[in-house]
Amino acid sequence: MINRAILMGRLTADPELRQTPSGTAVCTFTVAVERRFSDRNGERQTDFLDVVAWKGTAEFVSQYFSKGKMIIVEGSVQTRSYEDRNGNKRKAVEIVADNVQFGEPKSAGRDIRSEEPPLNGARDYGGASYKPMDTGDSDDLPF
Q1: Measured between alpha carbons, how far is 16 from 96 in angstroms, rounded to an integer?
Q2: Distance between CA atoms of 15 and 67, rounded to whole angstroms?
Q3: Among 5-9, 40-44, 52-56, 108-112, whose mean pLDDT is lowest?
């Protein structure tokens, strides 16, 4: 049996990070995903899918994603039953995220021409800094 879901869409609101009583991080958020096909009027319908992420993935989502950001979620579909405040039985369907990735470049939505260039050729890669290695004289290279 296979239970695998891959979504790419935009967050409808900022992710909500909480802690379980035992201290485990859990993050919930909703992703708006367009359907592949248009309706009779030529418009695409949108589905709003609830996602839950745990532990490090939860902390990653809450730190780096916000409302409107494009996100790619890999995970599995899970259902759960519960009783609402009025005692009615309800069923929830959600995606449990195993892996989350950025769906657009870091600079999307910003005017990158107005940003300061990095010092000494260093480049910013999602919070990690990368500085090209000084290879010295190119005559020393084996190729």
Answers
A1: 15
A2: 8
A3: 108-112
Average pLDDT, the chain: 82
Residue showing tokens 């958020």: 29
What's the pLDDT tens digit per position in 47-98? Answer: 999 999 999 999 999 999 999 999 999 999 999 999 999 999 999 999 999 9
Cβ atoms of 23 and 89 closer than 8 Å: no
**Token pair of 77 as six digits:** 């579909």
Three-state SS for 39-63 is: CCCCCEEEEEEEEEEEHHHHHHHHH
pTM of structure: 0.70
E strands of 24-139, at which residues?
A: 25-38, 44-54, 70-83, 89-102, 123-125, 128-130
Domains of the chain: 5-133 (2.40.50.140)
In this structure, what is the dihedral angle of CA atoms 82, 59, 53, 101, given to the nearest 10 degrees?
150
The structure tokens listed for 60 are 């990653």
